[in-house]
Design goal:
2 copies of one chain form a homodimer.
Chain A lengths: L21 E2 L4 E5 L4 H16 L2 H4 L5 E8 L6 E8 L9 E7 L10 H13 L2 H4 L1 E11 L3 E3 L3 H5 L3 H10 L14 H4 L6 H12 L5 E3 L3 E6 L1 H5 L7 E6 L4 E3 L6 H30 L1
Antiparallel strand pairs in A: 1-2, 2-4, 3-4, 5-6, 5-9, 6-7, 8-11, 9-10
Chain lengths: 285, 285
């Protein structure tokens, strides 16, 4: 009944006897509870967030159903898992972008070892320069060619220009060097599109002094088929995941997340603006 | 004709035979040009900024009059100085707050030595936790007691609560443990008050991809006497200074400055909100 998730793009994977998350057929996602401080922190977050966040913000987080003892994927026996909403269970062919937000994934309360390792990763990726980094992705192209899912090593070495290209490919029907961005206006744009959702999050982050989300990911999910099939509301979702390093804010806004989010918003809005310009140019030709 | 500035609160000072800035009686400020990369970078910034920034943002920067050979304050002879507007020449008794904005004062292009030193300073101060740190200040109290100007060592060790207290004292007639914040509404608040000016800067930083301002300071200047004397427009100024580490943005917003600025805005707005609540409470008693 438990299966390896088909659409996981980052994080530990339940393959080759490793410990990783599982899903079932009812749309639930089982994330193994890490047995150190990270597990405690993430569980504490899920147990408290719904009472601490305003209603319109809760939808950005996966639904939490509690914990459950489940046979671990590494064969080590029963282990407590967080039971969460499987946010990839609905779309048929989800294109997914996992974006770790913030120009700093370390935080003062962490161990010195953690800080040094995180800082090194931040300097080697676009985290410091762009205020975010892409941690993983899959982009659906077609029935014939399936998904483009670059290897982790390739994703880790993305430059600013690679990020720009990925954000264009993510909303294109072709994955060539010059993506057409034909889904930009219906996925990034629109009244409940990705940009509007990100701006809603931004307004909240300008004011909220509840949590500091270190090393947390923004997950963008779209189903390009749903746009092609002419669904009135295309499948477009923005979710926050990974709270193993989420700490209390102590009266200060999460300026690290907010700065990175604003930078990411600028990247997305540039794709949207450019695609509008192309559409206008095309209509004149 | 050249004098040591009366109202300098941070940075190198032209005292005891050291190299530091000078002022004259015509309202100009002479900053020694550092003879390494910092000097080149700061000069390049001042020579180019007015053509690169929108008109309504230029007022946040000191006017630049060019360079001039001036007898250096350390007795080493003639040295090129940046000739700038002396932003403290107008108010009679300026209260000044120098706030270094950003949760990171280092940047990838800097030398490894600089990065390690800057990172250490960022972790020892409120830079990492609050996204900014107070680098220096003076607060005018009265003719009798003059200014409160804590020693640099004290300023460096400020906690988040110390910062909150300083931001209240800055707009109070008394400097005791319970400052009255009686100038909050006329200096932080109001149509051209500090908060409005900071929000104007913020809007620009959400979009600008011209400069990244590392280790740059926001200077708040107010003249409480001008409020007491019933001037229709009290003396309230927000300026950006120190551009020795300002680099080109390469198409990315300055998420580090923006995040810190938003955090500082939240601190200022909290003082303003609290002071309004106190006023309402007082009017009911």
């Amino acid at each position: 009944m438990f299966k390896i998730p088909k659409h996981q793009v980052a994080g530990h994977q339940a393959i080759d006897g490793n410990l990783g998350p599982l899903v079932d057929d009812s749309g639930r996602f089982y994330k193994p509870l890490q047995d150190d401080e990270r597990g405690t922190t993430e569980l504490a977050f899920y147990q408290s967030f719904s009472s601490k966040l305003p209603h319109h913000i809760r939808g950005f987080f996966p639904v939490f159903y509690g914990t459950q003892l489940v046979e671990a994927s590494d064969g080590s026996g029963l282990r407590p898992h967080l039971v969460l909403q499987d946010i990839t269970s609905n779309p048929l062919n989800p294109s997914i972008l996992d974006v770790k937000i913030g120009s700093r994934t370390w935080y003062p309360e962490a161990s010195e070892d953690y800080i040094q390792k995180a800082l090194e990763g931040d300097r080697l990726t676009t985290t410091v320069t762009l205020g975010f980094r892409i941690s993983g992705l899959q982009i659906y192209e077609s029935k014939e060619s399936g998904y483009w899912k670059p290897a982790r090593k390739e994703v880790k070495s993305f430059s600013a220009d690679d990020v720009r290209l990925v954000l264009r490919k993510f909303v294109s029907s072709n994955l060539e060097r010059e993506p057409d961005c034909c889904f930009a206006s219906t996925t990034y744009g629109g009244r409940s599109g990705i940009l509007e959702q990100l701006l809603e999050l931004k307004v909240w982050f300008e004011d909220q002094t509840v949590y500091h989300f270190h090393s947390c990911s923004l997950l963008l999910l779209i189903d390009k088929e749903s746009v092609l099939n002419g669904r009135t509301v295309p499948f477009v979702e923005v979710k926050l995941i990974d709270f193993a390093h989420t700490v209390e804010a102590e009266g200060v806004i999460d300026h690290n997340f907010l700065g990175g989010l604003c930078s990411f918003i600028k990247f997305v809005s540039e794709v949207l603006t450019d695609s509008k310009v192309s559409t206008i140019e095309a209509s004149f030709n």
